[in-house]
Design brief:
253 residues, four-stranded antiparallel beta sheet, two-stranded antiparallel ribbon, 35% helix, binds zinc ion
């Protein structure tokens, strides 16, 4: 099979090789989704007019976001197309018609409830101090410890699933040392996790950018991109594990 740069792929430690899901067959579905979003001016389901879900958000200060579609087959061989936006959309975790996040938003909120205001308060105190103030160093260290502890507890909430019926803690799956904030919140992990939990077999996955171009010009409106190298590729090997057997049968590597 020929590979394209937009393909969804990652090295799997269990199998000692890479698992790959092609992007090209999902691109027509992605283009249709893009056209539908643009025609509606919103990511909301028809009949819903939540102003937070307007497309203008992507062209404002927030500067745009990644979207993704996953083409799957259900148990009867019917095609199913799942769609996702990365992270939250304008502060909204769950939008009907879009796959939910891997983490339960209620558990996420209760996890950050105590520490986030403390971190914000420390940030405000630090900003008010002069750079020479000895207290500043102590407060910076306190904030660093608080943030690191919070990040660990947030990561504990994510247990991505794969296509062998396994679920593991993010830190046991991630290939590399430091997991960036937001690992597990991009489109590909959300889509694959949802498919794995619902007995859907992934056939193709495409991610694309919608919104204002970023400053470096690497993200332009409507452009297809591979799942990101920083947060996604290090967990995709695990998350894609088992798809080859489901797609091609046990005999094919
Ligand atoms: Zn990513
Ligand atoms: Zn594997």
């Amino acid at each position: 099979m020929t590979r394209s740069v937009e393909d969804c792929a990652g090295f799997c430690r269990d199998c000692g090789r890479e698992h790959v899901l092609p992007a090209a067959p999902a691109m027509p579905h992605a283009l249709a989704l893009m056209a539908e979003m643009e025609a509606r001016g919103s990511i909301a389901a028809p009949g819903c007019d939540d102003p937070r879900l307007g497309l203008d958000y992507l062209f404002g200060p927030a500067r745009g976001q990644m979207f993704g579609v996953l083409v799957c087959q259900d148990g009867r061989g019917n095609e199913r197309v799942l769609k996702a936006f990365s992270g939250q959309y304008n502060g909204v975790w769950e939008v009907p018609g879009w796959v939910p996040p891997i983490v339960d938003p209620a558990r996420f909120q209760s996890t950050i409830r105590d520490d986030e205001p403390r971190i914000k308060a420390l940030t405000a105190r630090i900003a008010a101090l002069s750079p020479e103030d000895p207290l500043r160093r102590d407060l910076l260290a306190e904030r660093r410890a608080l943030s690191a502890g919070l990040m660990e507890r947030i990561f504990d909430l994510y247990r991505p699933a794969n296509f062998r019926g396994q679920s593991r803690a993010l830190r046991d799956v991630f290939l590399g040392r430091a997991m960036p904030t937001g690992t597990g919140e991009c489109c590909a992990p959300k889509l694959l996790h949802h498919a794995a939990l619902h007995g859907l077999v992934p056939m193709a996955l495409a991610e694309f950018y919608v919104g204002r171009e970023n400053l470096s010009g690497t993200r332009t409106h409507g452009r297809f991109c591979a799942p990101c190298a920083e947060k996604c590729r290090p967990i995709l090997g695990f998350m894609l594990c088992g798809i080859d057997e489901l797609r091609f049968g046990a005999a094919t590597p």
